[in-house]
């Protein structure tokens, strides 16, 4: 939620800030703004609407002089999207300009406190409280004002700050919301995501909770919350600029859909060696695996849908009780865990607030935690006992695609690793499973090469009012994700149901011409699915069936059209069946004229509850 960027160097700051914000716009896009030290003071320019509105006002930044500044692109939490609620927020006396990502939970209490002392507020935001607090505490030392302010605020924050009295400095501090410092030659940056600085530098330092950075043109100093100086070791980011650009594709989502085969290769192949799964760096021992009484899989959104598939894979391979939970529910349902529980946390960003809170709750109760994360060095990756990275590269489109595929691959690897350690699978079966896993990248490529079929199908149905996805077992888990993909970017109302549950209520929604997408890749449950398809067809539904080549003929007898995906082991089938349905969502949204990479009301990284 929200993107932050800050710059100090020799270049004109405003164009650099706008360029960085462009790369962060996927994090929030209802308003944007910059604050630059112009020589005579801090000047703020901000506007409701997409970043392009701000770019227009500033003539790409040219109109705003100055070499030191901060910028922000917003996903509104406190106060509607409006000019006045946009960031940067400025203190009453105009001394401080602040950009913020996160939520100040006690902002009302602080606001009332400051109001009683005569401070005038201009906006409805929680962020303004920080700007006002800084000015309230400021006695000539910005660092000390920051120290005092962060002692008072509760909640999560990544903050970029400039002060009219310190024209040669940018300040940054964070808690529970990501912030990095980019180190350049004669220039330095802050950003909520490395993608914002990649075109300038790949050398970064990640701020930990309540660490403060003071950026000057020629160097950066770091302090802890008590203002004791600290040393930080810079790291090199492996992603390059191209990874964060569209590279000729019309949208990031399409690019990322087609990156899936390669991302799968990178995620899977280094982890299979000499016919065995090798999860380097994982400290989970064989004894600990043997001692497990229960596995929890906790995540949000698309990552939760990976957990839905994982449940089937784990139960089949390990015969262990598995619970899959939505993180926002898990954290508040008082789950029962102990040192014999393994909690697998799944998150592309590694920053999702509810998922992070679930991880902390699991640790608090003594459970072992294992995170599947895409963003290296993210908070979840840092805090979990073990982390397995998905090597998907930056995922920019709000709709998650390659993260889903690579998370699934890691889930299969973990399940097979545990089965291998427990000798729960006969060697031949383990070998065959690993072979199937290694085949997934090529199979994905093959599947995606039929994109025109899906494009044509989307052209027939992009005007649908409602679309239902049905399936059983892993096909149901894939239906959940297919339905989310469609609704989030095309705004077509869509639901996923277990096919067997239809007749317990949802079938009343089916009428003449309703589109039902039936995922029927599970051979074992194919006949059951055929019965369910007959039930909806008898009530007027048009049915698109997704299946494997060997089942096509039988499916053709019951459905209006079919799409075949390569066959694989049962529990890996969602890795195939989701591909045409990602494309379907993409093309349907495009044909409806939707803003595919930036769907309404959404943002990529959900760092608030
Ligand atoms: O970064 P995370 O995987 O923790 O994000 C969780 C969800 O917000 C995310 O998967 C969301 O549902 C997708 N962007 C939807 O496509």
Sheet of most strands: 8 strands, antiparallel
Ions, cofactors, ligands: which are bound? 5-amino-5-deoxy-1-O-phosphono-D-mannitol
Low-confidence stretches: none
* N-to-C CA distance: 11 Å
Shape: globular
Residues in helices, as a percent range: 25-40%
Structural class: alpha/beta
Quaternary state of the chains: single chain
Percentage of β-strand residues: 15-25%
Q: Output the strand order for the largest sheet.
A: 3-2-4-1-10-9-11-15
Which value, in Å, is the CA radius of gyration?
25 Å
Counting DSSP H or I runs of 4 or more residues, the number of helices is 19
Mean pLDDT: 94
Please count the beta strands (DSSP E, at least 2 residues each): 27
Task: Explain briefly what this protein structure is.
With 609 residues, the protein is an alpha/beta fold.
Structural write-up:
It is a single chain. With 609 residues, the protein is of the alpha/beta class. The protein is built from 19 helices and 27 strands. It is globular, with a radius of gyration of 25 Å. Bound molecules: 5-amino-5-deoxy-1-O-phosphono-D-mannitol.
Overview features:
single chain, 609 residues, alpha/beta, eight-stranded antiparallel beta sheet, seven-stranded antiparallel beta sheet, 19 helices, 27 strands, 36% helix, globular, binds 5-amino-5-deoxy-1-O-phosphono-D-mannitol
Task: Give a topology summary.
Blueprint: E1 3-8, H1 13-24, E2 31-37, E3 42-48, H2 51-58, E4 68-74, E5 89-90, E6 96-104, H3 107-116, H4 127-137, H5 142-152, E7 155-163, E8 170-175, E9 180-183, E10 188-191, E11 203-206, E12 212-216, E13 219-223, E14 229-230, E15 235-236, H6 252-258, H7 260-268, E16 272-273, E17 276-277, H8 286-290, E18 294-299, H9 301-318, E19 322-326, H10 327-330, E20 341-347, H11 353-364, E21 368-373, H12 379-383, E22 386-389, H13 402-422, H14 427-448, H15 451-461, E23 466-471, H16 474-490, E24 493-498, E25 515-519, H17 526-537, E26 542-548, H18 552-556, E27 561-565, H19 574-591
Parallel strand pairs: 18-19, 18-20, 20-21, 21-22, 23-24, 23-25, 25-26, 26-27
Antiparallel strand pairs: 1-4, 1-10, 2-3, 2-4, 5-6, 6-7, 7-8, 8-12, 9-10, 9-11, 11-15, 12-13, 13-14, 16-17
The structure holds 5-amino-5-deoxy-1-O-phosphono-D-mannitol.
């Amino acid at each position: 939620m929200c993107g932050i960027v800050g710059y100090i160097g020799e270049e004109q700051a405003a164009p650099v800030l706008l360029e960085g914000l462009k790369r962060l716009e996927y994090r929030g896009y209802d308003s944007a703004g910059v604050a630059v030290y112009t020589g005579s003071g801090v000047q703020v320019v901000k506007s409701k609407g997409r970043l392009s509105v701000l770019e227009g006002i500033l003539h790409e930044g040219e109109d705003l002089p100055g070499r030191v500044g901060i910028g922000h692109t917003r996903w509104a939490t406190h106060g509607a999207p409006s000019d006045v609620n946009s960031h940067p927020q400025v203190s009453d006396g105009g001394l401080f300009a602040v950009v913020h990502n996160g939520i100040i939970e006690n902002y009302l209490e602080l606001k009332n406190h400051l109001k009683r002392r005569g401070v005038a507020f201009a906006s409805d935001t929680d962020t303004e409280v920080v700007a006002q607090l800084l000015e309230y505490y400021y006695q000539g030392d910005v660092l000390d004002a920051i120290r005092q302010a962060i002692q008072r605020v509760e909640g999560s924050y990544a903050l970029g700050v400039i002060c009219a009295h310190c024209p040669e400095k940018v300040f940054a501090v964070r808690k529970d919301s990501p912030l990095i410092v980019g180190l350049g030659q004669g220039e330095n940056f802050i950003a909520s995501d490395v993608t914002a600085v990649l075109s300038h530098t790949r050398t970064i330092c990640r701020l930990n909770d309540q660490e403060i950075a003071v950026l000057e043109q020629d160097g950066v100093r770091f302090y802890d919350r008590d203002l004791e100086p600290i040393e930080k070791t810079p790291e090199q980011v492996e992603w390059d600029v191209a990874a964060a650009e569209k590279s000729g594709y019309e949208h990031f989502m399409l690019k990322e859909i087609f990156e899936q085969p390669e991302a799968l290769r990178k995620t899977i192949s280094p982890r299979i060696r000499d016919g065995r799964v090798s999860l380097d760096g994982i400290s989970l021992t064989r004894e600990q695996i043997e001692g497990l009484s229960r596995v929890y899989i906790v995540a949000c959104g698309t990552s939760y849908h990976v957990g839905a598939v994982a449940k089937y894979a784990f139960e089949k391979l390990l015969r262990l009780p598995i619970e899959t939970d939505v993180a926002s529910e898990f954290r508040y349902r008082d789950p029962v865990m102990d040192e014999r529980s393994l909690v697998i946390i799944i998150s592309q960003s590694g920053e999702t607030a509810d998922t992070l809170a679930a991880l902390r709750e699991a640790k608090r109760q003594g459970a072992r935690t294992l995170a599947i994360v895409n963003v290296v060095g993210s908070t979840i990756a840092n805090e979990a006992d073990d982390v397995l990275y998905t090597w998907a590269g930056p995922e920019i489109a709000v709709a998650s695609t390659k993260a889903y595929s690579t998370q699934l691959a890691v889930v299969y690897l973990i399940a097979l690793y545990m089965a291998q350690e427990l000798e729960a699978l006969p060697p031949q079966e383990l070998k065959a499973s690993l072979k199937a896993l290694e085949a997934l990248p090529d199979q994905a490529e093959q599947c995606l090469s039929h994109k025109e079929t899906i494009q044509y199908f989307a052209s027939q149905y992009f005007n649908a009012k409602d679309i239902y996805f049905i399936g059983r077992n892993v096909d149901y888990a894939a239906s959940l994700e297919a339905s989310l993909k469609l609704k989030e970017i095309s705004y077509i109302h869509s639901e996923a149901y277990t096919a067997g549950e239809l007749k317990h209520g949802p079938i009343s929604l089916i009428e003449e011409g309703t589109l039902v997408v039936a995922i029927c890749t599970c051979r074992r449950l194919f006949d059951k699915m055929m019965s369910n398809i007959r039930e909806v067809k008898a009530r007027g539904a048009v049915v698109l069936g997704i299946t494997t080549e060997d089942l096509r003929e039988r499916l053709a007898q019951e459905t209006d059209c079919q799409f075949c995906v390569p066959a694989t082991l049962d529990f890996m089938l969602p890795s195939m069946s989701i591909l045409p349905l990602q494309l379907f969502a993409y093309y349907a949204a495009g044909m409806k004229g939707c803003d595919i990479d930036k769907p309404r009301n959404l943002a990529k990284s959900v760092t608030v509850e």
